[in-house]
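Retry 2 of 3 after timeout on previous attempt. Resubmitting structure tokens to design endpoint.
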């Protein structure tokens, strides 16, 4: 029997995927990019929002998932407020630095969550390299410390492409090695689904000729296992904001000669939707 108010997946594009699209010399305007997201049937986008992003979101009927990166607790309220005033409720946060130890990371996290609660927004700490969560051990140490301090599970933005590389995984053990904290997974409202393997934090979705790569075929069962684990929690009425996050050549995630990141993200969104349905979603 289906629940009266089942959870819904929201596909969130990243403006980052559209850097230098369709080319560096003829890059689209911000508005043309937002229009393309709507045309590709994304539910929203993620960025550090400005008033212009808010205007475009309202014009095209898109959700804004916010973002900021920071290590200074004194800046948190202003950064959260900028996100809130420009239309974001859920906010992804890349917190602190790679050399930030757990006690300091906990202090920053407690301040972040306190400011978020007071402002009525929902920040989440991203699992990401070059932050206080750059290894699984550091990420889970922070989550455990937060649980001990507050009695609550830490809201996290799950991005498993980073720990997959750290742990040098192979396709047969993605789920076994990465899906080790069910309660944290079930607490999450944001997931970045960048396809990965144990050597690359981003692998191509297609071969450039329309065929799905073997690396993606190896990765998709992990996504289904992740969705099934998330759905085992009490998710009635919740929204899961999923970003099919393909990084561009600028910054080094994508490589020259591979398909462009924006068109790959569109294909990836469709594959993720199929896996969501296979896991029991609508």
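Retry 2 succeeded. Sequence:
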């Amino acid at each position: 029997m289906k629940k009266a108010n089942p959870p819904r997946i929201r596909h969130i594009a990243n403006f980052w995927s559209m850097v230098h699209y369709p080319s560096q010399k003829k890059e689209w305007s911000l508005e043309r990019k937002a229009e393309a997201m709507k045309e590709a049937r994304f539910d929203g986008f993620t960025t550090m929002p400005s008033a212009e992003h808010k205007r475009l979101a309202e014009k095209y009927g898109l959700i804004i998932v916010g973002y900021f990166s920071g290590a200074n607790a004194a800046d948190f309220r202003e950064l959260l407020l900028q996100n809130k005033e420009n239309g974001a409720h859920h906010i992804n946060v890349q917190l602190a630095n790679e050399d930030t130890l757990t006690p300091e990371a906990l202090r920053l996290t407690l301040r972040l969550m306190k400011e978020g609660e007071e402002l009525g927004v929902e920040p989440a700490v991203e699992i990401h390299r070059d932050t206080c969560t750059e290894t699984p051990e550091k990420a889970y140490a922070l989550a455990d410390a937060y649980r001990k301090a507050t009695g609550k599970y830490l809201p996290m933005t799950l991005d498993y492409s980073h720990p997959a590389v750290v742990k040098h995984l192979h396709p047969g053990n993605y789920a076994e090695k990465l899906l080790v904290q069910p309660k944290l997974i079930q607490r999450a409202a944001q997931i970045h689904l960048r396809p990965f393997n144990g050597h690359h934090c981003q692998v191509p979705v297609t071969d450039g000729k329309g065929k799905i790569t073997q690396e993606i075929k190896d990765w998709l069962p992990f996504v289904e296992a992740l969705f099934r684990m998330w759905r085992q929690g009490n998710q009635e009425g919740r929204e899961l904001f999923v970003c099919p996050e393909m990084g561009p050549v600028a910054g080094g995630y994508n490589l020259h000669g591979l398909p462009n990141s924006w068109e790959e993200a569109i294909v990836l969104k469709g594959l993720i939707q199929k896996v969501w349905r296979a896991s029991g979603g609508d």
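Attempt log closed. The mean pLDDT is 97.
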